[in-house]
Amino acid sequence: MESALPAAGFLYWVGAGTVAYLALRISYLLFTAFQAWGLGHEPGFGPALGEWAVVTGSTDGIGKSYAEELAEHGMKVVLISRSQDKLNQVSSEIREKFKVETKTIAVDFVSEDIYDKIKTSLAGLNIGVLVNNVGVAYEYPEYFLEIPDLDNTIKKLITVNILSVCKMTQLVLPGMVKRSKGVILNISSFSGMFPVPLLTIYSATKAFVDFFSQCIHEEYKSNGIFVQSVLPFYVATKLAKIRKTSLQIPSAETYVKLALKTVGLKPRTNGYPIHSLLGSIFSVLPSWLYFKIIMNSNKSVRARYLKKAKKN
Ligand SMILES: NC(=O)c1ccc[n+]([C@@H]2O[C@H](COP(=O)([O-])OP(=O)(O)OC[C@H]3O[C@@H](n4cnc5c(N)ncnc54)[C@H](OP(=O)(O)O)[C@@H]3O)[C@@H](O)[C@H]2O)c1
User: Which residue's alpha carbon is at the smallest distance from atom 19 of ligand 1?
Assistant: First the structure.
């Protein structure tokens, strides 16, 4: 009986400490969410940073929405994607709707020799915002060794998801540093925040983007540069193969409107309140439970995909 009492006291303090820790985490989460999405504040971006915004992968999905939102805030936009037809279409939509100048650069980020062309096209532009959005993923969740055309997939994901972020930053950051202002938004992913087996290469490339962004932010914030790592969960786009929106899966327009509210406030964000809540829940799960949930979920998506592919 005597020896049980100190043990009970110890457990009491462990319990009280855990509750206090969780209460502090939740309060902090609510405070930062309210600060970004609840309070009206001046946007952390706009032509005052430099009249041009550059968006990679800007003819669809999240990138197109960034281009439109930045144009709505008065920025001229450089659109970069593969297809000149799609670029012309989005470019004329933006010019008509928002009455701003646009420029297009048709390149395939799978190639490594495109950066001289991009550099020449961007020469002389006063760039205030760079959105490193372009990214590619797998057709379906798959075990590493079973990924179709593994050699090319490795190269493609590394070149598009990683090299583009480094090279575009290398091209645009010097001008920002010279003018002591600028914003760089790097679109990582929830799967860059937490490891996602069966999407291993994608997840690892997005972790690179997250670390790269955090490091560059620390290196250049004293030069007036704000770098943000954006870590979305599902957004209804072609890449996600999701058309139907829900509270948990916003449209690209809704997602980007809310994500842009965090610019200047949060160097690392899930960009959308429900995604931030999910991030907080996942971050307190024990890793065995987290991996069990993710593996089971990705295994069932894989099975459904393969079954459907076999039928066709
Ligand atoms: N959607 C999601 O649920 C989600 C979640 C987390 C993170 N993300 C990230 O968000 C970013 C945007 O994804 P999204 O869902 O908006 O994708 P999306 O709808 O598939 O749009 C991709 C855009 O990139 C362009 N693009 C694709 N491959 C390209 C290449 N090799 N070279 C040049 N341009 C290329 C496409 O235009 P063209 O085909 O005309 O070239 C298109 O404009 C990606 O980095 C992705 O990893 C998305």
Answer: 61
Nearest to 121 by CA among 183, 52, 59: 52
Compute the 3-state secondary structure of the chain and give helix, strand, coil in percent, each to the nearest 5: 60, 10, 30
- Can you give the pTM of this predicted structure? 0.93
Q: Would 160 be classed as within a structural domain? A: yes
Pick the closest to residue 56 from 198, 152, 169 (CA basis).
Answer: 169
Give the tens place of pLDDT for each residue, 9-40: 888 888 899 889 888 877 877 887 887 888 77
In a domain, 195, yes or no: yes
CATH of the domain at 268: 3.40.50.720
Spatial distance between the Cα atoms of 208 and 172, rounded to a whole number of angstroms: 19
Domain assignment of residue 29, yes or no: no
Does any ligand 1 atom lie closer than 6 A to the CB of residue 136? Answer: yes
Number of structural domains found in the chain: 1
Instruction: State if residue 109 touches ligand 1 by the CB under 6 angstroms criterion.
Output: yes
Residue nearest to atom 8 of ligand 1 (CA): 189
